[in-house]
Amino acid sequence: MSTLLIQGGTIIDGSGNERFTGDLLVENGIIKLVSKKKITSHANRKINADGLLVTPGWVDIHTHYDGQITWDKYVTPSSWHGVSTVVMGNCGVGFAPVKKNNENFLIKLMEGVEDIPETVLAEGVDFNWETFPEYINHLNSLSRTLDFGVLVPHIPVRFFAMGVKGADFNSQPTNDEISLMKQIVSESLASGALGFSTSRTKKHTTKDGNYVSSLNAGKDELLGIFSAMKNYTNSLVEVNSDFADSDFEFIANIALKYNLPLSVLLLQVHNAPQRWNETLSKIKKFKAKGLSVNGQVGSRPIGMLMSFDGSINPFINSPTFKLINEMPSKERKENLLLNDVKLKIIADTPKDDHLDWINSLLPRCFKFEDNFNYEPKEIQNILSISRQLNKPPLEVAYDWMLEKNCERMIYHAFENYNEYNLDVVRTLLADEDTICGLGDGGAHVGYLCDSSSVTSMLKYLKSDLSDQNLSIEYLIKKQTKETAHFFGLNDRGVLLQGMKADVNLIDFDNLDVTYPSIANDLPAGGKRVIQKSKGYFKTFVSGVEVYNEFGFTENFPGRLIKGNQKS
């Protein structure tokens, strides 16, 4: 029998209750005892946790590791940040079901919606499945650092049932095609999917620039799919929508009809800065009607990172920059640092759609300082600095990116930051009808790494959030018990007897995120933005240590989660 005793730590158990000093005993991956009194045990291993927080492992219910999970046994960045469980298959996109020779449609769909390069996915994902149950069987063979579950995504289901017309957002299915979709979703849930996801947002487009095909999915289609889910306990519906007009009511009424839990993405978009509040009110209205519903919210701005090495910066269409960008790293940096090269790059950057788009972002672009706090003031944006220095904004951007040996990044807060503060984020986090989400682990790899927000959220508690009635206990509950249990994972998220022993030991005084960097570690030499952490002393999954202050332990107890899990 394997036993682990964690002694004398400050236990924040995920329930929302106040912290206490105590011991935690684990036997064979399950919590045997949690006590304020000293536990006497002849455990195989004892850890002195004095001065450390003892918490549940984080449960991140919004990721896009659908492809990465097949090649990356560490599942980074999430596993660098105390995450012990992830849910993928969000936003209606994924890699099953898929008919033979149609794999490229799903690859291009994922590239368009979640910005994962086609070359990376084409080399990295070995499509040895067609049906969703076959995909589940493949996932079930994997051992990873953390546990992972998957939603059945709408768009692959639609394409599988409807063929080529299933890729067209204006096409509606026949009754026979709806029946086939019902069958596919039913088989997927029976095989272990945690629920169903769909996208109804115009932000999601294919690589070719077309809206995703689920955008205008009609009442008959959703009634059919949702009706297939009603007999399953793992029947959650996840929706990413713009929620314009009456779209929330449309979705919520169908979910209510079949008594399906509903989780929707909830954030502030700058073209409709009050819609989050309107949607939150509708969540409360339908909750009063008996619908189990919540909003998935972030804990910082949704942030795009620009750099010379990343996939986005103002100068990517400059002929001079393109030429220099092909040079070896050392030579490339030497050239970028030359003033005449800088002036030439700025001068020959074409005034095209890309530059117009970059210029539209500048009011919320900030230098990503070494101790960036994710709440910069308006006076710190690039336009304000440009006026102070009497330099054109593009020259300021170039000079910023030259810093840190050409590795300084520029941060664009493109959502959750309309008023240049995090007041909306704080309001959403404090609301009882929200859970933590929006990390997007595995997606937007060339310019975003918001999966680190589980760490930066707690970092803020030492300063910015200390007066916002958002206690550490409350936010940990928001990222553990509430995320896990809403998704039917009732065996984790709380440090109680009988629960799964997913545990973080955290040096809270030193908890932080590192400066982002570019790593060329994806298949086909693909690059991504990564952001690691400091302060996670140890992370356990099922009682097995998977990560510590020195890195990964090369233990892989993480497994596929099939369906709802009982407490």
Explain this structure to me?
By secondary structure, the protein is α/β, with parallel strands linked by helices. The protein has 3 domains: 3-56 and 498-552, Urease, subunit C, domain 1; 59-303 and 419-486, Alpha-Beta Barrel (TIM Barrel); 305-415, no CATH class. It contains 18 helices and 25 strands. The strands form 6 sheets. Strands 1, 2, 3, 4, 5, 18, 23, 24 and 25 form a 9-stranded mixed sheet that branches. A 6-stranded parallel sheet has the order 9-10-11-12-13-17. It has a 3-stranded parallel sheet with strand order 6-7-8. β11, α7 (247-257) and β12 form a beta-alpha-beta unit. α5 packs parallel to α6 (219-229).
Low-confidence stretches: none
CATH architecture annotation name of the largest domain: Alpha-Beta Barrel
Question: What's the N-to-C terminus distance?
Answer: 22 Å
Task: Give the CATH H-level superfamily of the largest domain.
Answer: Metal-dependent hydrolases
Mean model confidence by pLDDT: 96
Task: Note the overall shape.
Answer: globular
What's the CATH class label of the largest domain?
A: Alpha Beta
Please give the number of β-strands. Answer: 25
Rg of Cα set: 24 Å
Helix/strand layout:
Elements: E1 3-11, E2 20-27, E3 30-35, E4 45-48, E5 53-56, E6 58-60, E7 83-88, H1 103-114, H2 118-124, H3 132-140, E8 147-150, E9 152-153, H4 154-162, H5 175-191, E10 195-200, H6 219-229, E11 236-241, H7 247-257, E12 262-265, H8 275-288, E13 293-297, E14 302-306, H9 319-325, H10 329-336, H11 339-348, H12 353-361, E15 365-367, H13 382-389, H14 393-406, E16 410-415, H15 423-430, E17 434-436, H16 453-459, H17 472-479, H18 481-486, E18 503-506, E19 512-513, E20 517-519, E21 528-530, E22 533-534, E23 536-541, E24 544-548, E25 551-552
Helix pairs in contact: 3-5, 4-5, 5-6, 6-7, 13-14
